[in-house]
Amino acid sequence: MKLRVFLLAILTACAPRVSPPPAAPTVSAPQAPDRDYLVFVASEGNDHVSLLSYGPRGISVERDFRVGFNPSELVGPHGIAVAPSGDRYFVTTAHGSPEGSLWKYSSAGDSLLGRVQLGFFPATVQVSPNGAYVWAVNFNLHGEMVPSSVSVVYAPEMVEVARIRTCTMPHGSRLSPDGSKHYSVCMMDDALVEIDAQKLAVARHFIVAKGMEHGMDGAPMAMAMPAGGAMTHAPSCSPTWAQPTVDGKSVFVACNKSNELVQIDVSSWTLARRIPAGDGVYNLAVTHDGRLLVGTNKRAQSVSVFDLATGKEFGRVATTRRLPSGVTVSSDDRYAFVTDEGVGSMPGTVDVIDLRAMAKVATIDVGQQAGGIDFWRTAPVGR
Fold this sequence. Notes:
Layout: H1 2-14, E1 36-43, E2 48-55, E3 58-66, E4 77-82, E5 88-93, E6 101-106, E7 112-117, E8 122-127, E9 133-138, E10 149-154, E11 159-165, E12 170-175, E13 181-186, E14 191-196, E15 201-207, E16 214-217, E17 239-244, E18 250-255, E19 260-265, E20 270-276, E21 281-286, E22 292-297, E23 302-307, E24 312-318, E25 324-329, E26 335-340, E27 348-354, E28 359-366, E29 370-379
């Protein structure tokens, strides 16, 4: 009998430990924050960058200034990204003569620290985890439908060290958690592109069009043609964002045209899932615990929240104004901050969504065509 108990104990100790599945998200009543949450937002329609604060006293504009040198020329601040150190942030301006630019500012007081010219219509931007490089896609919105590029800037000196040709209308510039890979999507080529961040070269791409899913080495073949020509293949997905998961094992692509999320397994470079999404799903963000994915629905005036374990939409929250665009998540995963572009002469708006309560808890107007947004930090009340 003792021998049987002894053997059973050994077998139990040697058995593989199976981690319990992550708990399903739950909804709770909204509670007032106990600190201030600070975010930077760019308004493309009036060239302004604003620092917003949301806390126990509500939401307010802490600082606001105009980007650019010439008050009579709109430069169009589009993307915005805070450095991991938090002491500086970067803004892409999409308009220019003829190219756009990347600007570096001090987070403490918006002092201009540097500027470098990039390609046509630089849009989405992100800083590498070590803070050394800034990656921006050259969206080329107003140019011919030909392959564009991704710019890589050495942040300390504000020097463009590489301009990597990728695809037609690249958007959604995001790095893997370890900074070794860069991902962007091709709005007119229905593709996800992976760049090796050390080699500064395209490693491979994945076609995300339904029924055509496949991965290949190198950059995708352009499907668009110069002005006056005909497209060989009309995009069916029209991807607008690439979002790696926090473990770096997958990348989610927002199919703006077909209203889907496409999950790509990075290791096997194969399709993992296609998930129904909101109408005009546009920009994406994941919570730092890896449980939730937040997506703006540009044609549905709403934000969807997905449980990544199941792939199911966990909640949907209406936005204040039309054309929800950018989204960023607070460092404690409590809030999502969403920009609404608005239409015509409407001001842009930032909505604060409580991810525990699945409810909008604050709203504030900012400049017209609010788009780029990034979380800075939390701070004690009345700092």
